[in-house]
Fold this sequence. Notes:
Blueprint: H1 30-46, H2 50-57, H3 61-69, H4 77-86, H5 91-104, H6 109-117, H7 129-150, H8 153-169, H9 171-176, H10 180-193, H11 214-217, H12 222-239, H13 244-255, H14 263-267, H15 271-288
Helix pairs in contact: 1-5, 4-5, 5-8, 7-8, 7-10, 7-13, 8-10, 13-15
Amino acid sequence: xxxxxxxERPADPPHRRGRPPEPICASAGLAHxxxxxxxxxxxxxxxxxxDDLVGRxxxxxxxxxxxxxxxGLYPTWExxxxxxxxxxxxxxxxxxxxKVAAIEADKKPSWIDDRLQAVPPADTDERPLAHVALYQAMxxxxxxxxxxxxxxxxxxxxxxxxxxxxxxxxxxxxxxSPDTPRxxxxxxxxxxxxxxxxxxxxxxxxxxxxFSTAHQAQAPHLIERLARIxxxxxxxxxxxxxxxxxxxxxxxxxxxxxxxxxxxxxxxxPPALVHTLDHHARWALKQLFPDTExxx
Length: 296
């Protein structure tokens, strides 16, 4: 007796993925790109098409396409919010990032307030507990590092706040990276340095830090104090020319006064590597300034 072959189960149809949007327009500002890039990434990963987004958001395909490309006028919060909700992104951090970019786009405060008020407040987003813990552990050293380059505590706090909003917005990516603290530090560094002044040679300008060090403040006479500031300004200028990781460790330890034992956790690197980076940085600076040691 023969048995009929069991018919093969037809394969599931392939999941239709949405086509990635066209590149962001060159006219989009830095703050605009900060929130637009993760929104675009979420859209691409969702598998939705632009037609799907039209159905979920209620806005036309043309307007959504312009939003996804950063084309034309800065988008209102109404259409941005509709996309945020359609893609199941946290509203709170994106609302703040949208507002920063609106200011960058020279939108008047009245326009910004009107656009925000046009959308009823959503339920308060609940931050992931691990994000809260990361913020509590890192906000002080992050602010100190940012202030060393931006020379203003309000500017530093603003940059750090933006980093934590962006981390919240992309928390799945942050926690799926091999090392979340390292991922967060690299985002912090990129955000701060994108706003830092640069010298003609292309490195970052740390010379202003020479005016706020205890070393120069101890000089009893003005002429001696100015001489120390000149030496320290050139010394800090040399620090800014170190490789990124050496510069980070040096700035945190000697300009920000962060406990050396805490620095590995801040930058997301093993303690042995941080010790090696510190050693190499001190050696390089000693060659340039034989009579100058970083002040503990």
